Amino acid sequence: MGTCSRTWVALAICGSWVWGPAGLAEAEEVWRFILPEQRRMEIRDPSRMPKARLPRVPSPPTVADPQRDTPPENLSLDDAIRTALAYSEVVRVLAGAAAASSGRTIYDPAITNTGIDQARGRFDPAIEVQNNFKRQESPVAHFVDPDDPASPVVIGGSGREDYQMSTGVSKTTVTGGSLNLGVNANPARSNAARLPLNPETTSSLDLSVTQPLLQGAGGRVNLVPIVLARIDTERSFFQLKDSVQQLVGGVVEAYWALVFARIDVWVRQQQVKQGEEALLVFSNRLKVGKTDSAQVEQARSALANFRASAIAAEADLLQREAALRNILGLPPSDAYRIVPVTPLNPERLEIQWEEVVRLAEDYRPDLIELKLILEADEQRMLLARNEALPRVDASALYRWNGLEGRTPDRAIVSSGPGEFTGWQFGVTFSVPLGLRQSRAGLRQRELIIMRDRANLQQGLHNTTHLLATSYRSVAQYYQQYQAYRAASQASTVNLILQRAKYEAASGLIIYLDVLQAITSWGNARSAEAQALAQYNAELANLELQSGTILETHGIRFYEELFGSIGPLGRLFRERCYPRDYQPGRNADRYPETPEPAEEAFGLKPPTFRPREPSGGERSSPSPGAGPPPLRPSPNLERLRIMVPEPIPPPPPGP
After folding, report:
1. CATH code, domain with 545
2. Which of 62, 128, 200, 307 is the most buried (most CB within 10 A)?
3. Could you tell me which residues come within 8 angstroms of residue 6 by beta carbon, excluding any fewer than 6 positions away?
């Protein structure tokens, strides 16, 4: 290969290196010496995206495949809350019959907390060292014989080599001023002739102070960014606390919804059994001519509707269990099915309205956040007032100068310490005529404070309405529970009487009365369970609205640390800093039974066939016959709304 060919190959290789390849790593800008224009959109194929695999989850149960052979796993309400808190790295909230992310994580307060050190960094001392090496040769034209203008002109010159070193330490003070201490040294050497010192070194030591007198002056004004960063950290914590409160309230609501769904499934299954027995009875009567085919078909139609209702109830049960699994952070299905073992509380709790309102004012995170916003507004107002002042800065400087060098006779001479000094003092005044921008900023801050005060008042107003709604709902659901319980007892008696009536009848009987009795019994039992579940969920919602649900459940936040780069850099030991602020374990509060929670509801099917008396005559059911009374939950006093204990501050990090 010739010299010319090798040259072109080398140029091609260098050109490809300079201009850059067509593509490099994913989601990175291609390195080129001159970046081109973006003349088209480049969208990567999904197959080239980073991989994030879904967890392996078995197929969830359905009404077509209920997977009844899955072993049960007893879960108390305390354990459910404990599980949700353990998987609360991303806080979830209940959204209807599902759960969704609240957008808050346990890392948010720690992330916001870094802003405090970022604001403090303004006052850290700074060291600056500059080293510059320089050589300069200046051409000069001159006559060979300076005394003869007709002599030839030649170009000569002299060269100079310099080393400039500058080291300084500066610090911004909390009063807004700045302190500077600088050392400068400039050794220089020249090849010019007849210089008194060659080489020579000039040096100086500077001490300067600058202090604002109006705008920018004062410790409170200059510490405003740090105070704002602290307030932002507190706001982030209370936003996290609000999300965790909704998480706990959602777990309680989803848990009671699951208990009700299991009761509702039992009720609908009992209706199916009653419909099957009724269809069998009327079919047998049709064979002996004691009824007509219309009654049989009506019983068959009612049975089909009962089965459809049972399928809907089973589907709702699966959905409620899935919602509970979602908010707990569990997969949609696993090797176990959840069986709640904490019974519903049938006892009425007395609630002190004035105490609830007082607790909400002190503990609701959204009200606390509005108060923190007002506090931040006051800090920004302080800053805006200061910025509306003229700029007046006082400055002072004192300098020590020195000189050292070698004389033509090779002797070294130098100035004495402090022999040559200088100083400077001045005052700088500047102000925009009219101060339009700063005055407008001040007015803006005044209006923002008015707006945020109005928002706080609206928050207090809205809180009272939320508390009143929850307060009324607690009373409403309990009264509905009492009414539905009476209806359930009456419908049970009616169903037994209607069944006894058509069993004892010898002539033609109408199925409509039996159908109405079965339907009324199922609806009353289901409504009774739903009202009781809503009552228990509303008790937790009242604690949520008052902002005390974490305190009444014994939940405290604690700080986790992690190692990161320290003040001395990566070559030295790491220091510990806040990593997250996560909720701890809840205290045991709710009762737990060894049997499923719905058993405490008195799931006893109505007695269709009255027992035979000793005299051989069939007796009618007593008018007071009905479902057995609910067993009261133990430790009832622990369910009352109590004044929460204050949250202790986290221990200081090392």
Report:
1. 1.20.1600.10
2. 200
3. none
